[in-house]
Amino acid sequence: MSISVQNISKSFKDKTALKNISFEVKEGELFGLIGPDGAGKTTLFRILTTLLFADEGTATVADFDVVEDYKSIRNHIGYMPGKFSLYQDLTVGENLEFFATIFGTTIEENYDLIKDIYIQIEPFKNRRAGKLSGGMKQKLALCCALIHKPKVLFLDEPTTGVDPVSRKEFWEMLKRLQQKGITMLVSTPYMDEAALCDRIALIQDGKILQIDTPQEIIKHYPKKIYDVKADNMFKLIESLNKYEHKYSLYPFGEFLHYTDKREDFNPKELYHFLEEMSAVNIIIQPTKTTIEDTFMELAK
Questions:
Q1: Is the pLDDT reported for residue 161 higher than 90?
Q2: How far is the C-alpha of 40 from the C-alpha of 220, rounded, in Å?
Q3: What is the 3-state secondary structure (H, E, C) of 43-72?
Q4: 187: left (phi over 0), alpha (psi -120 to 50) or beta
Q5: 246, 282, 40: which is closest to 156 by C-alpha?
Q6: What pLDDT score was predicted for residue 152?
Q7: Tens digits of per-residue pLDDT, 211-223?
């Protein structure tokens, strides 16, 4: 296994950040750690990248122990933290040269690995990193994390605050890197990105809720979900919360996602109820289950 985590726990004073976390990432796998802010993702990344000690448990990365072999791990991993942490007063080219020198390599030696990404930022190689756009900063940080050809790449919320086009481009880059044999552990609060991973671990309040492929997690959702919409959405939420057969309800884009307690649920009954509650232009239609629906159910 490229990454093995066994019963890792970590607390900060009276706050428990991680509670008995265990999972494994196979060699060459793109594994996603999916959860909201404060779920424990960054704390786990810092433990796995040897920046923080766990209170309990053990972990290995590229067959090296995170405590005993921390120097070896640092030579074999790439780490892209959530916050842009490169030298903002250095140019794009100077940042790359600096990180290549630290790892005893050159840009030319591993150019084939970063080529697809670097050609997008090369026109700005003389621009200071602090003056780059969010998407360009992201690409530069990825290049610097790859410059020494790591076996395992850690990406902590790499697309947070980045525009949708850059997010899409970034994940396309990750898929191409995966084809070159690099193992990747990616954390993200975006549920739509979960479907792009080979396997995912859903995490909330420092606990793993479920681990599987995105398709298997969706398949085992226990209820049929319906999109519900009306002219006054606030009033619609109030009305649905009063409905005695409601199982779950939460906003999802322009609709509300609704599930019913009953196995033999008939949408017409709900329609008539909402009419009695003075709802106007009611829409009730079945919809596909998403990772977000599963997460909301598991986190209840």
A1: no
A2: 25
A3: HHHHHHCCCCCCCEEEEEECCEECCCCHHH
A4: beta
A5: 40
A6: 96
A7: 999 999 999 898 9
What is the reported pLDDT for 113?
Answer: 87
Residue 128 DSSP code: B
Q: Does residue 6 have a pLDDT over 90? A: yes
Which helix (H) or strand (E) covers residue 250, if one does?
Answer: strand 246-252
- Complete edge-to-edge strand list for the sheet that includes strand 77-80: 77-80, 152-156, 183-188, 30-34, 199-204, 207-212
CB 2 within 8 A of CB 170: no
What's the token pair of residue 299? Answer: 């986190």
Copy the structure tokens of residue 67: 């405590």
Q: Which two tokens stand for residue 196?
A: 């792009």
Please state the domain extents for the chain: 3-214, 226-298
| Sign of the C-alpha dihedral computed for residues 249, 251, 253 and 254 taken in this order | positive
Q: Which amino acid is at 241?
A: N
Q: Which among 186, 215, 225, 183 has a CA at the least distance from the CA of 203?
A: 186
CATH code for the part of the protein at 3-214:
3.40.50.300
Q: How far is CA 184 from CA 25, 29, 141, 230, in A?
A: 8, 6, 15, 43
d(CA 245, CA 260): 6
Bridge partners of 12, per DSSP, are: 15
Pairing relation of β-strands 183-188 and 283-286?
Answer: unpaired
- Residues 153/185, Cβ–Cβ less than 8 Å: yes
How far apart CA 169 and CA 173 sit, in angstroms, is 6
| pLDDT grade for 75, boundaries at 50, 70 and 90 | very high
Q: φ, ψ for residue 109 (rounded to 5)?
A: -60, -40
